[in-house]
Amino acid sequence: YQRRVHGKNNKGIGKVVAFKGGQLIKIDIYDTSLVFVSCHLAAHEGFVKARNEHTKQIMLNAKLANPSLEITTQFPHLFWFGDLNYRIDLAKLRGALWDHSLHWDEVYALIQAKLWQELWKADELCEQISCKAAFAGFREVALMFPPTFKVERRMGIYHIRQRIPSWCDRILWTSLPEYKSDVKLLSVSPGDLPSSDHKPLRAHFEVILRPIPRMGKNKTAQLIFQELTTSNVADLNKVYIEFFSWPSSLFGGATYKTKAVSTYRKNAKWDENLIPKLSTWAESRDQFAQCHLLFTLFEKQSTATNMRGTAVVHLRNYGYADFWERFDESIVHGGAEIGRLQGWFRVIWAEEGGGFRNFSKTIYLEQDTKRCCSLM
Protein backbone atom coordinates (compact mmCIF):
# COMPACT_ATOMS: atom_id res chain seq x y z
CA TYR A 1 0.00 0.00 0.00
CA GLN A 2 1.67 3.18 -1.21
CA ARG A 3 0.24 6.32 0.36
CA ARG A 4 2.48 9.20 -0.70
CA VAL A 5 5.41 9.66 -3.07
CA HIS A 6 7.67 12.73 -3.13
CA GLY A 7 10.63 13.34 -5.44
CA LYS A 8 13.52 15.78 -5.83
CA ASN A 9 16.26 16.28 -8.43
CA ASN A 10 19.62 17.80 -7.55
CA LYS A 11 22.08 18.41 -10.40
CA GLY A 12 24.82 20.36 -8.73
CA ILE A 13 25.22 23.58 -6.82
CA GLY A 14 25.11 26.52 -9.21
CA LYS A 15 28.23 26.51 -11.37
CA VAL A 16 30.57 25.65 -8.49
CA VAL A 17 30.00 21.91 -8.16
CA ALA A 18 29.38 20.33 -11.55
CA PHE A 19 28.43 16.67 -11.57
CA LYS A 20 25.68 14.50 -12.97
CA GLY A 21 23.66 14.95 -9.83
CA GLY A 22 21.25 12.97 -7.74
CA GLN A 23 17.58 12.08 -7.63
CA LEU A 24 15.57 11.43 -4.51
CA ILE A 25 12.24 9.80 -3.92
CA LYS A 26 10.38 9.26 -0.64
CA ILE A 27 7.74 6.57 -0.43
CA ASP A 28 5.42 6.27 2.56
CA ILE A 29 4.12 2.74 3.06
CA TYR A 30 1.60 2.86 5.88
CA ASP A 31 3.58 4.73 8.57
CA THR A 32 7.08 3.82 7.35
CA SER A 33 8.98 6.32 5.18
CA LEU A 34 11.55 4.90 2.76
CA VAL A 35 13.88 7.36 1.02
CA PHE A 36 15.85 6.36 -2.09
CA VAL A 37 18.76 8.40 -3.44
CA SER A 38 20.34 7.66 -6.81
CA CYS A 39 23.40 9.64 -7.85
CA HIS A 40 26.43 9.81 -10.11
CA LEU A 41 29.56 11.10 -8.36
CA ALA A 42 32.88 12.44 -9.70
CA ALA A 43 34.66 10.03 -12.05
CA HIS A 44 38.28 8.94 -12.56
CA GLU A 45 40.99 7.61 -10.28
CA GLY A 46 42.31 9.80 -7.49
CA PHE A 47 39.19 11.97 -7.09
CA VAL A 48 38.13 10.65 -3.67
CA LYS A 49 37.75 14.11 -2.12
CA ALA A 50 35.58 15.25 -5.04
CA ARG A 51 33.32 12.22 -4.61
CA ASN A 52 33.02 12.94 -0.89
CA GLU A 53 32.21 16.60 -1.62
CA HIS A 54 29.52 15.68 -4.12
CA THR A 55 27.96 13.35 -1.55
CA LYS A 56 28.01 16.17 0.99
CA GLN A 57 26.35 18.60 -1.41
CA ILE A 58 23.54 16.18 -2.20
CA MET A 59 22.89 15.52 1.49
CA LEU A 60 22.92 19.21 2.42
CA ASN A 61 20.89 20.50 -0.50
CA ALA A 62 18.26 17.79 -0.89
CA LYS A 63 15.22 19.10 0.97
CA LEU A 64 12.47 16.74 2.06
CA ALA A 65 10.20 17.43 5.04
CA ASN A 66 12.17 19.76 7.39
CA PRO A 67 14.58 21.94 5.33
CA SER A 68 16.73 22.59 8.44
CA LEU A 69 17.72 18.92 8.64
CA GLU A 70 19.65 16.56 6.41
CA ILE A 71 17.72 13.75 4.79
CA THR A 72 19.76 11.15 6.68
CA THR A 73 18.23 12.11 10.06
CA GLN A 74 14.56 12.59 9.14
CA PHE A 75 13.31 9.16 8.12
CA PRO A 76 13.48 5.58 9.44
CA HIS A 77 15.33 4.23 6.39
CA LEU A 78 17.38 5.65 3.52
CA PHE A 79 18.85 3.68 0.60
CA TRP A 80 21.67 5.26 -1.46
CA PHE A 81 22.80 3.77 -4.76
CA GLY A 82 24.26 4.55 -8.15
CA ASP A 83 27.59 5.04 -9.86
CA LEU A 84 29.48 6.32 -6.82
CA ASN A 85 32.75 5.93 -8.74
CA TYR A 86 34.98 4.95 -5.77
CA ARG A 87 37.87 2.83 -7.05
CA ILE A 88 40.15 -0.01 -6.00
CA ASP A 89 43.59 1.40 -5.13
CA LEU A 90 46.11 -1.32 -4.31
CA ALA A 91 48.97 1.15 -4.66
CA LYS A 92 47.74 3.20 -1.69
CA LEU A 93 47.14 0.10 0.39
CA ARG A 94 50.62 -1.30 -0.19
CA GLY A 95 52.48 2.00 -0.10
CA ALA A 96 53.82 1.63 -3.60
CA LEU A 97 53.56 3.86 -6.65
CA TRP A 98 52.88 1.75 -9.73
CA ASP A 99 52.24 2.67 -13.32
CA HIS A 100 48.75 1.90 -14.64
CA SER A 101 49.70 -1.31 -16.40
CA LEU A 102 51.34 -2.92 -13.38
CA HIS A 103 48.46 -1.83 -11.14
CA TRP A 104 45.90 -3.31 -13.54
CA ASP A 105 47.80 -6.62 -13.72
CA GLU A 106 47.94 -6.90 -9.93
CA VAL A 107 44.22 -6.20 -9.52
CA TYR A 108 43.31 -8.55 -12.35
CA ALA A 109 45.41 -11.34 -10.80
CA LEU A 110 43.42 -11.02 -7.56
CA ILE A 111 40.19 -11.13 -9.57
CA GLN A 112 41.27 -14.31 -11.33
CA ALA A 113 42.15 -15.84 -7.96
CA LYS A 114 38.78 -14.68 -6.54
CA LEU A 115 40.54 -13.01 -3.60
CA TRP A 116 37.65 -10.63 -3.03
CA GLN A 117 38.64 -9.73 0.52
CA GLU A 118 42.06 -8.49 -0.63
CA LEU A 119 40.39 -6.26 -3.20
CA TRP A 120 37.81 -5.10 -0.63
CA LYS A 121 40.61 -3.90 1.64
CA ALA A 122 41.81 -1.62 -1.17
CA ASP A 123 38.38 -0.19 -1.92
CA GLU A 124 38.22 3.62 -1.54
CA LEU A 125 34.61 3.71 -0.35
CA CYS A 126 35.27 1.16 2.39
CA GLU A 127 38.12 3.34 3.62
CA GLN A 128 35.98 6.50 3.58
CA ILE A 129 33.15 4.85 5.51
CA SER A 130 35.59 3.35 8.02
CA CYS A 131 37.21 6.70 8.82
CA LYS A 132 33.80 8.44 8.68
CA ALA A 133 34.92 10.87 5.98
CA ALA A 134 31.84 10.01 3.90
CA PHE A 135 28.63 8.03 4.41
CA ALA A 136 29.14 7.92 8.18
CA GLY A 137 26.65 5.48 9.69
CA PHE A 138 25.82 3.80 6.37
CA ARG A 139 25.97 0.04 5.93
CA GLU A 140 27.10 -2.19 3.10
CA VAL A 141 28.13 -5.81 2.66
CA ALA A 142 31.40 -6.92 1.11
CA LEU A 143 30.92 -7.72 -2.58
CA MET A 144 31.97 -11.27 -3.34
CA PHE A 145 32.02 -11.09 -7.14
CA PRO A 146 34.23 -9.45 -9.79
CA PRO A 147 34.39 -5.64 -9.95
CA THR A 148 31.66 -4.29 -12.21
CA PHE A 149 33.71 -1.60 -14.00
CA LYS A 150 35.27 -1.12 -16.55
CA VAL A 151 34.00 -3.95 -18.74
CA GLU A 152 33.36 -4.77 -22.37
CA ARG A 153 29.90 -3.90 -23.67
CA ARG A 154 28.62 -7.45 -23.95
CA MET A 155 27.13 -10.16 -21.76
CA GLY A 156 29.37 -11.31 -18.94
CA ILE A 157 32.16 -9.48 -17.08
CA TYR A 158 35.29 -8.92 -19.20
CA HIS A 159 37.52 -6.13 -17.87
CA ILE A 160 39.16 -3.50 -20.08
CA ARG A 161 42.74 -2.38 -19.45
CA GLN A 162 41.78 1.28 -19.89
CA ARG A 163 40.71 1.57 -16.22
CA ILE A 164 41.59 -0.25 -12.98
CA PRO A 165 38.75 -2.76 -12.33
CA SER A 166 36.58 -1.36 -9.52
CA TRP A 167 33.22 -1.69 -7.79
CA CYS A 168 31.96 1.73 -8.92
CA ASP A 169 28.26 0.88 -8.65
CA ARG A 170 27.14 0.47 -5.04
CA ILE A 171 24.09 0.07 -2.81
CA LEU A 172 24.26 1.49 0.74
CA TRP A 173 21.64 1.99 3.40
CA THR A 174 21.22 3.66 6.78
CA SER A 175 18.48 3.68 9.42
CA LEU A 176 17.69 5.59 12.58
CA PRO A 177 18.98 3.56 15.57
CA GLU A 178 15.54 2.27 16.58
CA TYR A 179 15.04 0.75 13.13
CA LYS A 180 18.46 -0.69 12.22
CA SER A 181 17.40 -4.28 12.85
CA ASP A 182 14.28 -3.81 10.67
CA VAL A 183 16.31 -3.95 7.44
CA LYS A 184 17.68 -7.26 6.23
CA LEU A 185 19.71 -7.62 3.03
CA LEU A 186 18.74 -10.90 1.41
CA SER A 187 21.01 -10.77 -1.65
CA VAL A 188 23.18 -8.53 -3.81
CA SER A 189 24.49 -9.42 -7.25
CA PRO A 190 25.57 -7.84 -10.54
CA GLY A 191 23.11 -7.48 -13.37
CA ASP A 192 24.02 -8.04 -17.02
CA LEU A 193 23.60 -4.94 -19.17
CA PRO A 194 25.45 -5.40 -22.50
CA SER A 195 25.02 -1.75 -23.58
CA SER A 196 27.17 -0.26 -20.78
CA ASP A 197 30.77 -0.46 -19.56
CA HIS A 198 29.30 -0.86 -16.04
CA LYS A 199 27.41 -3.84 -14.68
CA PRO A 200 24.62 -2.54 -12.44
CA LEU A 201 23.98 -3.97 -8.98
CA ARG A 202 20.69 -5.37 -7.79
CA ALA A 203 19.81 -6.00 -4.17
CA HIS A 204 16.90 -7.65 -2.41
CA PHE A 205 15.93 -6.28 1.01
CA GLU A 206 13.36 -7.26 3.60
CA VAL A 207 12.09 -4.27 5.59
CA ILE A 208 9.79 -4.50 8.60
CA LEU A 209 7.13 -1.79 8.55
CA ARG A 210 6.29 -0.21 11.89
CA PRO A 211 3.80 2.45 13.00
CA ILE A 212 5.10 5.88 14.04
CA PRO A 213 5.39 6.22 17.84
CA ARG A 214 2.12 7.53 19.22
CA MET A 215 1.80 10.85 21.01
CA GLY A 216 -0.59 11.44 23.91
CA LYS A 217 -2.83 14.36 24.85
CA ASN A 218 -0.62 15.45 27.77
CA LYS A 219 3.06 16.00 28.50
CA THR A 220 4.45 12.69 29.70
CA ALA A 221 8.14 13.38 30.35
CA GLN A 222 10.54 16.26 30.73
CA LEU A 223 14.20 16.15 29.67
CA ILE A 224 16.56 18.24 31.79
CA PHE A 225 20.14 18.83 30.70
CA GLN A 226 23.01 19.65 33.01
CA GLU A 227 25.68 20.19 30.37
CA LEU A 228 26.33 19.93 26.64
CA THR A 229 29.81 20.04 25.09
CA THR A 230 31.22 19.67 21.59
CA SER A 231 34.63 18.11 20.99
CA ASN A 232 36.91 18.07 17.94
CA VAL A 233 34.63 20.40 15.96
CA ALA A 234 36.87 22.83 14.06
CA ASP A 235 36.37 26.51 13.35
CA LEU A 236 33.31 27.25 15.45
CA ASN A 237 32.48 30.82 16.39
CA LYS A 238 29.06 31.77 17.76
CA VAL A 239 26.91 28.64 17.93
CA TYR A 240 23.68 27.29 19.36
CA ILE A 241 21.83 23.97 19.33
CA GLU A 242 18.28 23.59 18.11
CA PHE A 243 16.45 20.47 19.26
CA PHE A 244 14.48 18.43 16.76
CA SER A 245 13.02 14.96 17.11
CA TRP A 246 11.86 11.90 15.29
CA PRO A 247 8.96 11.73 15.09
CA SER A 248 8.65 15.50 14.74
CA SER A 249 5.56 15.48 16.97
CA LEU A 250 7.50 14.45 20.10
CA PHE A 251 7.64 18.07 21.38
CA GLY A 252 3.98 18.73 20.65
CA GLY A 253 4.79 21.52 18.20
CA ALA A 254 7.09 23.41 20.60
CA THR A 255 10.49 24.76 19.47
CA TYR A 256 13.56 24.49 21.71
CA LYS A 257 16.98 26.11 21.33
CA THR A 258 19.97 26.69 23.56
CA LYS A 259 21.41 30.15 24.03
CA ALA A 260 24.22 30.97 21.62
CA VAL A 261 27.77 30.76 22.97
CA SER A 262 30.96 32.26 21.55
CA THR A 263 33.70 29.67 21.19
CA TYR A 264 36.46 31.66 19.45
CA ARG A 265 37.13 28.58 17.29
CA LYS A 266 37.32 26.26 20.28
CA ASN A 267 34.86 23.63 21.47
CA ALA A 268 31.46 24.89 22.61
CA LYS A 269 29.98 24.33 26.05
CA TRP A 270 26.48 25.01 27.38
CA ASP A 271 25.74 24.96 31.12
CA GLU A 272 22.27 24.07 32.39
CA ASN A 273 21.12 27.70 32.55
CA LEU A 274 21.65 27.97 28.77
CA ILE A 275 19.67 24.81 27.89
CA PRO A 276 15.85 24.65 27.84
CA LYS A 277 13.85 21.88 29.47
CA LEU A 278 12.25 19.70 26.80
CA SER A 279 8.66 18.57 27.33
CA THR A 280 7.69 15.42 25.42
CA TRP A 281 4.28 14.02 24.53
CA ALA A 282 4.89 10.33 23.86
CA GLU A 283 1.83 8.28 24.82
CA SER A 284 3.78 5.87 27.05
CA ARG A 285 7.29 4.89 28.09
CA ASP A 286 7.33 2.27 25.35
CA GLN A 287 6.44 4.88 22.73
CA PHE A 288 9.01 7.28 24.23
CA ALA A 289 11.72 4.63 23.87
CA GLN A 290 11.15 4.48 20.09
CA CYS A 291 11.85 8.21 19.64
CA HIS A 292 15.08 10.06 18.80
CA LEU A 293 16.48 13.44 19.81
CA LEU A 294 18.26 15.41 17.10
CA PHE A 295 20.78 17.96 18.35
CA THR A 296 21.46 20.25 15.39
CA LEU A 297 24.35 22.67 15.64
CA PHE A 298 23.95 26.11 14.02
CA GLU A 299 26.60 28.79 13.65
CA LYS A 300 25.63 32.46 13.56
CA GLN A 301 27.59 34.53 11.08
CA SER A 302 27.31 38.19 10.13
CA THR A 303 25.00 37.59 7.17
CA ALA A 304 23.59 34.08 7.69
CA THR A 305 23.08 31.14 10.03
CA ASN A 306 24.66 27.90 8.85
CA MET A 307 23.81 24.37 9.92
CA ARG A 308 27.03 22.66 11.06
CA GLY A 309 25.88 19.13 11.87
CA THR A 310 23.53 16.88 13.82
CA ALA A 311 23.96 14.35 16.63
CA VAL A 312 21.26 11.69 17.13
CA VAL A 313 20.37 10.27 20.57
CA HIS A 314 18.18 7.17 20.70
CA LEU A 315 15.85 7.51 23.70
CA ARG A 316 15.50 3.75 24.14
CA ASN A 317 18.83 3.84 25.98
CA TYR A 318 17.69 6.39 28.58
CA GLY A 319 15.03 7.22 31.14
CA TYR A 320 14.76 3.91 32.99
CA ALA A 321 16.21 5.19 36.27
CA ASP A 322 16.12 8.46 38.18
CA PHE A 323 19.73 9.26 37.37
CA TRP A 324 21.73 11.78 35.41
CA GLU A 325 22.82 9.84 32.33
CA ARG A 326 25.67 10.63 29.96
CA PHE A 327 25.64 10.42 26.18
CA ASP A 328 28.45 10.76 23.64
CA GLU A 329 27.40 10.80 19.99
CA SER A 330 28.89 11.66 16.59
CA ILE A 331 28.13 15.03 15.01
CA VAL A 332 27.63 14.33 11.30
CA HIS A 333 27.54 16.96 8.56
CA GLY A 334 27.04 16.03 4.93
CA GLY A 335 27.87 12.39 5.61
CA ALA A 336 31.16 13.08 7.45
CA GLU A 337 31.78 12.96 11.19
CA ILE A 338 33.02 16.44 12.17
CA GLY A 339 33.25 15.90 15.93
CA ARG A 340 31.26 14.68 18.90
CA LEU A 341 28.59 15.94 21.27
CA GLN A 342 28.65 14.93 24.93
CA GLY A 343 26.18 15.75 27.66
CA TRP A 344 24.37 14.83 30.85
CA PHE A 345 20.59 14.67 31.09
CA ARG A 346 17.81 12.94 32.96
CA VAL A 347 14.22 12.08 32.19
CA ILE A 348 11.55 13.14 34.69
CA TRP A 349 8.24 11.36 34.21
CA ALA A 350 4.94 13.12 34.81
CA GLU A 351 2.88 12.14 37.83
CA GLU A 352 -0.60 10.76 37.20
CA GLY A 353 -2.15 13.86 38.69
CA GLY A 354 -0.07 16.20 36.52
CA GLY A 355 3.26 17.92 37.04
CA PHE A 356 6.72 16.37 37.23
CA ARG A 357 8.56 14.71 40.08
CA ASN A 358 11.33 16.75 41.70
CA PHE A 359 14.53 14.98 42.80
CA SER A 360 16.92 16.56 45.26
CA LYS A 361 19.58 13.84 45.17
CA THR A 362 22.11 13.87 42.31
CA ILE A 363 23.33 10.46 41.15
CA TYR A 364 25.37 9.97 37.99
CA LEU A 365 25.12 6.89 35.81
CA GLU A 366 27.74 6.29 33.16
CA GLN A 367 28.09 3.32 30.85
CA ASP A 368 31.50 1.94 30.06
CA THR A 369 32.49 0.17 26.86
CA LYS A 370 31.35 -3.19 28.25
CA ARG A 371 27.86 -1.78 28.93
CA CYS A 372 28.29 -2.22 32.65
CA CYS A 373 27.25 0.55 35.01
CA SER A 374 29.31 2.38 37.60
CA LEU A 375 27.84 4.75 40.19
CA MET A 376 29.79 7.86 41.14
Note down, in words, how this protein is organized.
The protein is 13% helix and 36% strand. Strands 8, 12, 13, 16, 17, 18 and 19 form a seven-stranded mixed β-sheet that branches. It has a five-stranded mixed β-sheet with strand order 1-2-3-4-5. It has 376 residues and is mostly beta strands. The longest helix has 14 residues, at 48-61. It is built from six helices and 19 strands. α1 links the parallel β3 (32-40) and β4.
Structural class: mainly beta
Main β-sheet, in a few words?
A: 7 strands, mixed
Q: Gyration radius, to the nearest Å?
A: 23 Å
Shape: elongated
Number of helices: 6
* Total beta strand runs: 19
SSE arrangement, N to C:
EEEHEHHHHEEEEEEEEEHEEEEEE
Sequence stretches where pLDDT stays below 50 over 5 or more residues: 12-19, 358-376
Approximately what portion of the residues adopt beta-strand conformation? 35-45%
Helix content: 10-25%
Mean pLDDT, all residues: 86
Measured distance between first and last alpha carbons: 51 Å
